[in-house]
Amino acid sequence: MSKPFVSLIIFIMGTMIGFLISKWLEVGSLRGRWLEVGSLRGRYPEEVPGQDLLQGLKLHWMPANGSLPIRTHYSKPDIGQIPRNEVMILTPWLAPIVWEGTFNSDILKEDYQQKNYRIGLTVSAIGKYIKLLKKFLESAERYFMKEGMVNYYVFTDSPDEVKALNLEISRTLRIITVPEYSNWEQAVLGRMEVLKNQTELLFQKEVDYLVSLDTDVVMLNPIGVEILGDLVSVIHPGFYHSQRKNLPYERRPASRAFIPEDEGDFYYQANFFLGTVQRIYHLTKTCYEGIQIDKANGIQARVFEESHFNKYLVYNKPTKVLSPEYIWSNSLGSPKDIKIKRVNHGDKHF
Ligand SMILES: *[C@@H]1O[C@H](CO)[C@@H](O)[C@H](O)[C@H]1NC(C)=O
Ligand SMILES: *[C@@H]1O[C@H](CO)[C@@H](O)[C@H](O)[C@H]1NC(C)=O
């Protein structure tokens, strides 16, 4: 072969390789953006309720840092391995049910750390329940989303009393003053309104996910990013093996919380729920409106706000369900299918 011919071949090959490398780099650098756009679209399909309510609200998402190679080390998932064989781990509408043994928190954390979501943990501390706040927050500091960007929001009718607790908290804590309710029932009904209002004012600017919890719970074990999802509810530990007819749904058609006898999936406990700010906004707004209509009609739903909450979730299915391991109560003993008690609820030592 002549020298010029070899040079030509080398020149053509070099150009092709250069071109391929340039395209490859482009694809690599676009990856973050595509992931972002694709996932946001997946998160907010057109028909998602609440889309029109908080226009323009997007998840805060920092794309993966391209200069850090992503490595994930863990044993390969085995398709023949059943994570739990005695409990349902997927609802009939294909939402995962989170039990101990069904997830690998290292994989989930890796994914979370690339996205850096901001999480708001709201807690209601009203009246004598303020006395439980210290214990609650201490347990949250220890167990709640260890590596996460978490803000605490305390709803209280007595901000001075909360300040007097001199809480030693490593994360941002905001105190949100709410009206003085005459009793606990009014306070839990009012919480839907408070969450709705504060989403309009504050949460949509500050966080991506909202988690709502009661003060009379204490976290006993880690609660991590496995709980995150668009709309997430917890199966009530007192009814998780109950038949439909024994679930305490509101069955009177006069209430807005009415669920017909032949409908309903699980009974969810309203003292722990979470989701994207947008989904929680739609949930709390709908429940608030139902509660207002009931009030005008002189009817109170069977289990207060929890009845409205359950009604909502029959027709707006949760995208992830947490097992009763996430809201256990020591009074219910230690059945075999509860492998870990992540939360204890209802120990009211004031
Ligand atoms: C990406 O990570 C590297 C190494 O930790 C750091 O030096 C760099 O500033 C990061 N870049 C961005 C854009 O965050
Ligand atoms: C919620 O917002 C509405 C409208 O701004 C206001 O009238 C109402 O008092 C607020 N409720 C609470 C509990 O903050």
From TrEMBL:
<keyword id="KW-0812">Transmembrane</keyword>
<feature type="binding site">
    <location>
        <position position="214"/>
    </location>
    <ligand>
        <name>Mn(2+)</name>
    </ligand>
</feature>
<keyword id="KW-0735">Signal-anchor</keyword>
<keyword id="KW-1133">Transmembrane helix</keyword>
<feature type="active site" description="Nucleophile">
    <location>
        <position position="306"/>
    </location>
</feature>
<feature type="binding site">
    <location>
        <position position="216"/>
    </location>
    <ligand>
        <name>Mn(2+)</name>
    </ligand>
</feature>
<dbReference type="GO" id="GO:0016758">
    <property type="term" value="F:hexosyltransferase activity"/>
</dbReference>
<dbReference type="GO" id="GO:0005794">
    <property type="term" value="C:Golgi apparatus"/>
</dbReference>
<feature type="transmembrane region" description="Helical">
    <location>
        <begin position="6"/>
        <end position="25"/>
    </location>
</feature>
<feature type="binding site">
    <location>
        <position position="306"/>
    </location>
    <ligand>
        <name>an alpha-L-fucosyl-(1-&gt;2)-beta-D-galactosyl derivative</name>
    </ligand>
</feature>
<keyword id="KW-0464">Manganese</keyword>
<dbReference type="GO" id="GO:0046872">
    <property type="term" value="F:metal ion binding"/>
</dbReference>
<comment type="similarity">
    <text>Belongs to the glycosyltransferase 6 family.</text>
</comment>
<feature type="binding site">
    <location>
        <begin position="214"/>
        <end position="216"/>
    </location>
    <ligand>
        <name>UDP-N-acetyl-alpha-D-galactosamine</name>
    </ligand>
</feature>
<dbReference type="GO" id="GO:0016020">
    <property type="term" value="C:membrane"/>
</dbReference>
<protein>
    <submittedName>
        <fullName>Histo-blood group ABO system transferase-like</fullName>
    </submittedName>
</protein>
<feature type="binding site">
    <location>
        <position position="236"/>
    </location>
    <ligand>
        <name>an alpha-L-fucosyl-(1-&gt;2)-beta-D-galactosyl derivative</name>
    </ligand>
</feature>
<keyword id="KW-0328">Glycosyltransferase</keyword>
<dbReference type="InterPro" id="IPR029044">
    <property type="entry name" value="Nucleotide-diphossugar_trans"/>
</dbReference>
<feature type="binding site">
    <location>
        <position position="129"/>
    </location>
    <ligand>
        <name>UDP-N-acetyl-alpha-D-galactosamine</name>
    </ligand>
</feature>
<dbReference type="GO" id="GO:0005975">
    <property type="term" value="P:carbohydrate metabolic process"/>
</dbReference>
<dbReference type="Pfam" id="PF03414">
    <property type="entry name" value="Glyco_transf_6"/>
</dbReference>
<keyword id="KW-0472">Membrane</keyword>
<keyword id="KW-0479">Metal-binding</keyword>
<dbReference type="GO" id="GO:0031982">
    <property type="term" value="C:vesicle"/>
</dbReference>
<keyword id="KW-0808">Transferase</keyword>
<dbReference type="InterPro" id="IPR005076">
    <property type="entry name" value="Glyco_trans_6"/>
</dbReference>
